[in-house]
Design brief:
heterodimer; A: about 675 residues; mainly alpha; Cytochrome C Oxidase, Chain A; two-stranded antiparallel ribbon; 20 helices; about 70% helix; about 0% strand; B: about 130 residues; 2 domains; 4 helices
């Protein structure tokens, strides 16, 4: 009846997961009761959970990413603590089977449920606004994508309370992840959660490629799109190319584990090397799925806070599209040591180094954007400069690792661990924090506290270098990754410095929560009245903060690169806004619970597959399909916003803008 | 009699305004697809072709089959409003090519740096 599920699955004898589980359950219940007592439930349900508004969905993605960041960071600090304690005679506080689950969960969560939702959240929030349109191409599908991602995150976190997580590392290499060596449900949690969230990610990519290619404001030609839209297009194209490979690879491993197939087993003609090959066909492009939108965020920040157009816009677009293609041609550099010949290693090594060229072009473009500009040292600008200083170092160790003979020495070492954290924290996380600060006022109508923001930056910047520079040293000394116990006591000082760095990053994460609460409390002092708090250059700053559901009362007419900047300068010169247009009623998609119900059944089905509860799995599948059929038979998908409401809102915006314009012309 | 009905004067795969001509296009596509399938079965079982040529013939027929599907069922044309579809197709073909050829190449080279096989290392065999 319940498959493999029994009371043994609950970790009654392990104090760490048990106490964590109880705290999380109490926290979720507490928040639920608080929301219900305050009467926020209808607002939450209609405003967010069932919303088809791309801005609300973007905010939900980022909230999910921030929550998962806390979980992933908890794993990180536990690992650092274990490695600092378990030196020489001491065995530390984590037994090997628990430690192995923690490093697997840390990698899986940080990539799939922190970095991905954070990046996709920004795409959701920003891309339609920058393109000057009212929503994405398929608004309901967008909501479904989010909830499927959330369903994957739920299953991963459920493994803490019920059963166990994979002990195989974040990519679950066979033969270790095969049934013979991992008989528990850990690998199944990994496989099923990633399959469900992967569907959500592919749907997102379909949505955004369509949105960017097919729905743009009048006059917004390809070479007038902001760079963030270009990098989003490239990232979504890579998702469309790479994620199906991941789905197939994980499906093959599932066939091995569930139906006794022999794709990757040691016997029966299987070849586990094929798994390494296929998983990195997805895995390497994944890096660029994360870092390209990050480059887009830096480009927006550089232009805005230097008060200049982006230097080399066209070379930026070209470099982005070159990276988009070349990122699909370098995957072998993740397994140079697996036995391939010198020719093939050399070709993939050279291809990997070639990617450094368009990336270098981008670094110079940001530097020349700042050169001669009137740079304002705000928090996003701190992250941009911190990124350039950090990322170039990470890129250089990447070029080192791309040399096959060097890779033979340092592969699978702490040097590698230091390298990819160097580029992912220095490249992606810094961009995400910059974007969070940059677009927060657009989402909520007030800016975040600047002083705390700078403290958070310094925590990340100093904490990162203290945490990972020692690992480069240890890696060159022969330190292997994923060690539960350290036998050489002379490593202790380096590991303790790394622990100190992780603690400083932890302070930064705590300060992020403090900053949010403090900024909400004192928001009256930092209200963004005009909708353009940073003197922006792209179309998202044209509308009010937060924007109305329909973004723009009339779709903006675009007359060149930097659509909003041109419009603003014309208005300042003529001391007048453009003539009031003829407002029309606006048709917008209605809210729908399709996504959340669909994800509910998907979670049910996923849980059932993990525990071999077959009747429940069928029920979940049938339920998810029934929701789809029910939605397809709905007749009404849009509602009309009456012209009076549109006109009243638009006139209010024009009044605010006129006041702002007069205050500008008086000051000059 | 030289006047051409504009309804009939469309490239294969372009959208039709007339349901009849659209149906005709689908029927032509279906007939071609079935024909190519039948021919490939015939090629595989016949002895009238030179043996090693059979595989080449099947590859040619398979590519033709893909072409028929793209033009008649997926409506890929060379028309000006079809640029996105053609580019998407080219990108898809590139990715499939990279993944397939790359995988075959990599897996074929997998053992290049391994120890030589027993027939070389076994010194007793060398009299």
């Amino acid at each position: 009846m319940l498959g493999k599920l029994s009371w043994d699955a609950i970790p009654f004898h392990d104090p760490i997961p048990l106490i964590t589980s109880l705290v999380v359950i109490l926290a979720v219940l507490g928040i639920g009761i608080w929301v219900w007592r305050k009467g926020y439930w209808p607002a939450l349900y209609h405003g967010y959970i069932t919303s088809t508004d791309h801005k609300k969905i973007g905010i939900m993605y980022i909230v999910l990413a921030l929550l998962m960041l806390v979980r992933g960071f908890a794993d990180a600090i536990m690992m650092r603590l274990q490695q600092s304690l378990a030196i020489g005679a001491s065995q530390g506080y984590l037994p090997p089977e628990h430690y192995n689950q923690i490093f697997s969960a840390h990698g899986t969560i940080m990539i799939f449920f922190v970095a991905m939702p954070f990046v996709i959240g920004f795409m959701n929030f920003v891309v339609p606004l920058q393109l000057g349109v009212r929503d994405v191409a398929f608004p309901t599908m967008n909501n479904v994508s989010f909830w499927l991602t959330a369903s994957g995150a739920l299953l991963i976190n459920l493994s803490l309370f019920i059963g166990e997580f994979a002990r195989t590392g974040w990519l679950a290499y066979p033969p270790l992840s095969e049934l013979e060596f991992s008989p528990g449900v850990g690998v199944d949690y990994y496989l099923v959660a990633l399959q469900i969230s992967g569907v959500g990610t592919v749907l997102t990519a379909v949505n955004f490629v369509t949105t960017i290619l097919k729905t743009r404001a009048p006059g917004m030609s390809y070479l007038r799109m902001p760079v963030f839209c270009w990098t989003s297009l490239a990232a979504n194209l890579i998702i469309l190319a790479a994620f199906p490979v991941l789905t197939v690879t994980l499906a093959l491993l599932m066939l091995d584990r569930y139906m006794g197939f022999h794709f990757f087993t040691n016997d029966g003609g299987g070849n586990s090397m094929l798994y390494m090959n296929l998983i990195w066909v997805w895995g390497h492009p994944e890096v660029y799925i994360l870092v390209l939108p990050a480059f887009g965020i830096y480009s927006e920040v550089a232009a805005t806070f230097s008060g200049k157009p982006l230097f080399g816009y066209r070379s930026m677009v070209f470099a982005t599209m070159v990276i988009c293609i070349v990122s699909l041609m370098v995957w072998l550099h993740h397994f140079f040591t697996m036995g391939a010949g010198a020719n093939i290693n050399a070709i993939f090594g050279i291809a990997s180094m070639i990617i450094g060229i368009p990336t270098g072009v981008k670094i110079y473009n940001w530097l020349f954007t700042m050169y001669g500009g009137r740079v304002r040292f705000t928090v996003p600008m701190y992250y941009l400069i911190g990124f350039m200083l950090t990322f170039v170092g990470g890129g250089l160790t990447g070029v080192l690792l791309a040399i096959p003979p060097v890779d033979f020495v340092v592969h699978n070492s702490l040097f590698l661990v230091a390298h990819f954290h160097h580029v992912i924290i220095g490249g992606v996380v810094f961009a995400l924090m910059a974007g969070y600060t940059y677009w927060f006022p657009k989402a909520f109508g007030f800016t975040l506290d600047e002083r705390l923001g700078k403290m958070i930056f310094w925590c990340w910047f100093i904490g990162f270098h203290l945490a990972f520079m020692p690992l480069y040293v240890l890696g060159l000394w022969g330190g292997t990754r994923r060690m539960q116990h350290i036998s050489d006591p002379s490593w202790a000082p380096w590991l303790n410095v790394a622990l100190l760095g992780a603690v400083i990053i932890g302070v930064g994460i705590v300060l992020t929560v403090v900053q949010l609460l403090y900024s909400i409390k004192t928001r009256e002092q930092r209200l963004d009245v005009t909708g353009d708090p940073w003197d922006g250059r792209t179309l998202e700053w044209l509308t009010l903060s937060p924007p109305p559901h329909y973004n723009f009362a009339v779709l903006p007419d675009v007359h060149g690169e930097e659509a909003y900047w041109i419009r603003k300068q014309t208005a300042i010169k003529q001391d007048a806004l453009i003539d009031e247009p003829d407002y029309q009623p606006i048709e917008m998609p209605i809210d729908t619970p399709t996504g959340v119900i669909c994800a509910f059944f998907a979670s049910l089905c996923g849980f059932a597959v993990i525990w071999h509860i077959w009747w429940l799995a069928i029920l979940g599948l049938v339920g998810a399909f029934a929701v789809f059929v029910w939605y397809a038979w709905q007749d009404e998908h849009e509602h009309i916003i009456p012209v009076e409401e549109v006109r009243a809102n638009a006139r209010e915006r024009r009044r605010i803008r006129m006041e702002h314009l007069h205050s500008l012309s008086q000051s000059t | 009699m030289t006047e051409i009905d504009p309804e009939q004067n469309v490239a294969p795969g372009e959208p039709h305004s007339n349901i009849l001509s659209e149906t005709t296009a689908y029927v032509i596509g279906l007939a071609l697809a079935l024909g190519l399938t039948a021919v490939s079965f015939w090629v595989a079982s016949t002895s009238s072709l030179w043996g090693p040529g059979v595989a080449v013939g099947l590859v040619v027929l398979a590519i033709a089959q893909m072409g028929v599907h793209l033009v008649f069922f997926l409506h890929i044309t060379s028309g000006p409003d079809n640029t996105n579809n053609v580019l998407a197709l080219a990108f898809g073909v590139l990715v499939v090519f990279l993944v397939m050829i790359g995988t075959i190449w990599i897996m074929g080279h997998m053992n290049d740096n391994m120890m030589p096989g027993p027939e070389i290392t076994n010194l007793q065999m060398q009299h």
